[in-house]
Amino acid sequence: MITPENIAAHRTIDVSDLQSTVFDYRAPLWWGNTLLLFIETAMFGILVTIYFSVMMNTSPFPPPRVDRLPVMYDPVPDLTLPVINLVVLLASLIPGIWLDISARKRNARAVKIALILTLSFNIASIVIRYFEFDSLHFKWNDNAYGSITWMILGMHLLHIIALGCEDIYLLIWTFVKGMDDKHAVDLTVTAVYWYWIVGIWVLLFPLVYLVPRMVE
């Protein structure tokens, strides 16, 4: 005999063996972060397109700087601070990967140390980037070349700052309340975000600092 109780029993699914926390593509948060990174990558693609448009319509490229002293007829960007910052970002992948692995293993002690290290690299990169703008030899409002190069560096800097704020939040949470499963997933997603920040700058660095040296 079919009764409402029998129907309810047949529709019941036993999920007791399912994991309460999943990582990577099985986690909705991972997909949200990944789709966001696709959007941000497209945004940088637009900036790169504008950069090449300015380059094709500017001769010579970069344009001479003659409106203030010292006059510069070949104002290619300096490399010292940009190279240092690139090295800092690449080196930051070491604690970033350690943070990712430690969160998956629920190793709270290692996560705390890795978070402190990644945040330290993050702050160092922000400070260097602040002074790195002078390496361009132009202000954002000098000309189209100055505007697009400042925009590329500035937008990347905003992502570094955003992740720094996220690191601070996760660091405080981990020290005050410990590391639960939910925040373990947050930490792995944060690590992926940092991989993207470093990777996108590896692609943008030659555009901003090397291409002007190759254009005649």
Q: Tell me the series of helices and strands, N- to C-terminal.
A: HHHHHHH
CATH architecture descriptor text: Up-down Bundle
Query: Count the strands?
Result: 0
User: On the 0-100 scale, what is the average pLDDT?
Assistant: 86
Instruction: Count up the helices.
Output: 7
Structural class: mainly alpha
In total, how many domains does the architecture comprise?
Answer: 1
3D shape: elongated
User: Share of helix among residues?
Assistant: over 70%
Distance between the termini: 88 Å
- The low-confidence runs, each spanning 5 or more residues with pLDDT under 50, are 14-18
Rg, rounded, reads: 23 Å
Beta-strand residue percentage: under 5%
Largest sheet entry: none
Query: What top-tier CATH class fits best?
Result: Mainly Alpha
| CATH homologous superfamily descriptor | Cytochrome c oxidase, subunit III, four-helix bundle
Kindly report the CATH topology.
Four Helix Bundle (Hemerythrin (Met), subunit A)
Walkthrough of the structure:
With 216 residues, the protein is mainly α. The protein has one domain (22-214): Four Helix Bundle (Hemerythrin (Met), subunit A) (Up-down Bundle), CATH 1.20.120.80. 71% of the residues lie in helices and 0% in strands. It is built from seven helices and no strands. Helix 3 packs antiparallel against helix 7 (181-214) and helix 4 (93-104) packs antiparallel against helix 7. The longest helix is centred in the C-terminal third of the chain and has 34 residues, at 144-177. It is elongated, with a radius of gyration of 23 Å. The model is unreliable at 14-18 (pLDDT under 50).
